[in-house]
């Protein structure tokens, strides 16, 4: 189990993007199979809807679109039009209405018109993506700066540059290694 990047607990759309990542052994995809996708949905308190290969394609298509939105935000550019369209289409797939619940304080929940269907899941993720990129959290979206890492995170502390301590340690180790080599070259030259 990989440590979640900062912000994933606040944004399932960010967590969705980070299901594709690189490790020492190559690319890892938590959504590579319907079983993997179902497990991921459960872990993120999303309805564990039954999924076939086509459904998986819709979920990973949304993931690619949200990734493009986050990348555009971080690069301060406009995203590809198709990415915006994909996210909007997913949000429209369920005409869910906000509902107020009040045990233990006011809380907004969404009442789905497509309960138990993949549309419910895609729309929930798309709504979150729209909230994040168009809201206050948008300014915090950053790609991990560690070489070979493709995860995004929310920079809740001004100095954070990496998605995890693993990435931070890796960068520091590489920098130290470089320094040792340079010192060796300097003393031998
Ligand atoms: Zn990283």
Any chance you could write out the topology, listing elements then pairs?
Blueprint lengths: L11 H6 L2 E4 L2 E4 L4 H10 L9 H23 L5 H12 L4 E5 L5 E5 L6 H17 L6 E3 L8 E3 L10 H24 L1
Antiparallel strand pairs: 1-2, 3-4, 5-6
Helix pairs in contact: 3-4, 3-5, 4-5
The structure holds zinc ion.
How would you sum up this structure, described in words?
The chain is an alpha+beta fold and 189 residues long. 49% of the residues lie in helices and 13% in strands. It has one domain (12-188): Jann2411-like domain (Jann2411-like fold, Orthogonal Bundle). It has 6 helices and 6 strands; from the N terminus they run αββαααββαββα. A two-stranded antiparallel ribbon has the order 1-2. Strands 3-4 form a two-stranded antiparallel ribbon. Strands 5-6 form a two-stranded antiparallel sheet. The termini are far apart. The structure holds zinc ion.
Can you summarize this structure?
The chain has a single domain, classed as Jann2411-like domain (Jann2411-like fold, Orthogonal Bundle), CATH 1.10.3300.10. Helix content is 49%, strand content 13%. The chain contains 6 helices and 6 strands, in the order αββαααββαββα.
């Amino acid at each position: 189990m990989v440590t979640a990047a900062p912000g994933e607990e606040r944004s399932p759309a960010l967590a969705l993007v980070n299901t594709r990542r690189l490790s020492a052994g190559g690319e890892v995809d938590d959504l590579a199979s319907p079983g993997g996708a179902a497990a991921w949905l459960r872990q993120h308190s999303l309805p564990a809807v039954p999924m076939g290969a086509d459904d998986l394609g819709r979920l990973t298509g949304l993931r690619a679109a949200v990734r493009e939105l986050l990348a555009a935000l971080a690069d301060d550019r406009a995203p590809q039009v198709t990415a915006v369209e994909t996210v909007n289409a997913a949000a429209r797939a369920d005409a869910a209405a906000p509902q107020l619940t009040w045990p233990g304080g006011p809380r907004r929940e969404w009442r789905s018109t497509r309960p138990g269907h993949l549309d419910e899941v895609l729309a929930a993720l798309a709504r979150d993506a729209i909230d994040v990129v168009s809201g206050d959290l948008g300014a915090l979206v950053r790609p991990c700066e560690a070489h070979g890492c493709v995860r995004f995170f929310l920079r809740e502390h001004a100095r954070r540059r990496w998605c995890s301590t693993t990435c931070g340690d890796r960068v520091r180790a590489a920098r130290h290694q470089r320094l040792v080599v340079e010192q060796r070259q300097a003393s031998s030259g």
